[in-house]
Amino acid sequence: MFGLFSKKQNNKAFAIPEGQRVYTIGDIHGRLDLLERLSEKIVKDIAEHPSLETTEIYLGDYIDRGPKSAGVIDWLTKNSKMCDRRICLRGNHELYPLSFLSDERIYDHWRNLGGRETLISYGIHMPLMFDPEELHHLQQKFIAAFPPHHAEFIANLEDTHIIGDYFFVHAGARPGVPLDKQKQDDLLWIRDDFLHSRYKFSKMIVHGHTPVEKPEIMGNRMNIDTGAYTTNKLTCIVLENTQHRFIHT
Asked: Residue 160: which of 86, 235, 90 has the closest Cα?
């Protein structure tokens, strides 16, 4: 766990409303083991630092690449909240399962993003050499294996969330566009135009989507995607008043 930091922009400190604390978790990508480990640390942190109100926010990309995508969704839908509120945002990877239910053709693209591992996590046998002619059969297997409450969870995810001076989103935001006018495609997919910009948004952007070795704290954004599925490092940023600190696996 790192120390406390305060972040300012134009001499104005970004702040979470008084009496609140926010725990924001980066991209999980099927690493249920890391999610469980991080949650234990967050529960301990809450016990050691009581607050009037706590919120846990997940920045999306719960599935694909890692081995336990189905387990992560199950944990988020069935496990008791650590905080007073739980907010789950949509990542670009969450677009694929519901699309595959109705359009088998998207599998080729989804597979390249780790969709094969997600299907395996739902108990579907996936041979190394997949016959494209069996694609419809694969879709039907997924329809049968995909729990309705998982589909409902993904369908009801939020694209963004605001608390105080912070704007929580999966990928980022289009510079020059008001935050309430952003397009979903940018919120879930944007990279270079956002990451390389010094544009001062009306809020501090807290995001994931682009893996980094350690959290990036910039003048206009905070990136907490530390590539959990390959690095074994899942990151949570703790925001309270004008300060922030980190909890890692």
From this structure: 90
CA distance 94 to 136: 21
Residue 114 DSSP SS3: coil
pLDDT tens for residues 154-201? 999 999 999 999 999 999 999 999 999 999 999 999 999 999 999 999
- Angle formed at CA 50 by CA 44 and CA 55, multiple of 5 degrees: 80
- Distance between CA atoms of residues 37 and 52, nearest Å: 24
In terms of DSSP bridges, do strands 12-13 and 204-207 run parallel, antiparallel, or are they unpaired? unpaired
Q: Which residues pair with 246 in a beta bridge?
A: 237
Q: What is the pTM of this model?
A: 0.94
Q: What is the CB-side half-sphere exposure of residue 135 using CA atoms within 13 A?
A: 14
d(CA 211, CA 230): 10
Provide φ and ψ at 138, rounded to 5°.
-65, -45
